Amino acid sequence: MSSKRELIISKIRDGVVIDHIPTGRALLVLRLLGISGREGFRVALVMNVESRKLGTKDIVKIEGRELTKDELNLVALVAPTATVNIIRDYEVVSKFKVAIPDVIEGLLKCKNPRCITNQQREPVRSRFRVLSREPLKLVCDYCGTIHELNDIERYFGLT
Ligand code: CTP
Ligand code: ZN
Questions:
Q1: Which domains, ranges and CATH numbers included, belong to the chain?
Q2: pLDDT single digits (tens) 2-54
Q3: Pocket test for ligand 1, best of 86, 92, 97 (most atoms within 8 A of CB)
Q4: 102 FRET partner, CA 20 to 30 A, in 13, 58, 142, 144?
């Protein structure tokens, strides 16, 4: 439990707190959740705060929204240390760590323009296998192209 001294932004009433995000990844997390700030719900972003486990960390708080399984998988890829806290009426009602699945389907685009998953006709759903979690390495199941964290950042328009 954080003491008053440590609390940077207020607690939220209902929603989700993604805590223990590696420093510098909070914007990427917002991007991959498709949050621009124009949706109308309150969002708080905390960057570079002290963490006992990580040294420093980022936090994302989203009021009035929960996360789908696909969204949790995307968060896990870029923030494997993240803890997700579901908040109802100011209380943490559920807390769990994200986990990178073995297969990522239909969530990312292969960067190889000639890949079958990028063809206009008869498009095939993308599918990547996780070769390594740290550092992140995904391999396209169709063409074998390796994707790393910076490819995901580029995909979400951050580099
Ligand atoms: N939180 C919040 N609004 C609430 C309740 C909690 O924004 N109504 C945030 C806290 O600020 C913290 C996270 O959700 O960033 C987890 O809350 P809690 O479990 O109370 O904190 P800790 O015990 O410090 O969490 P952990 O053990 O996961 O580090
Ligand atoms: Zn491919």
A1: 15-97 (3.30.70.140), 103-155 (2.30.30.20)
A2: 555 556 788 999 999 999 999 999 999 999 999 998 999 999 999 999 999 88
A3: 92
A4: 58
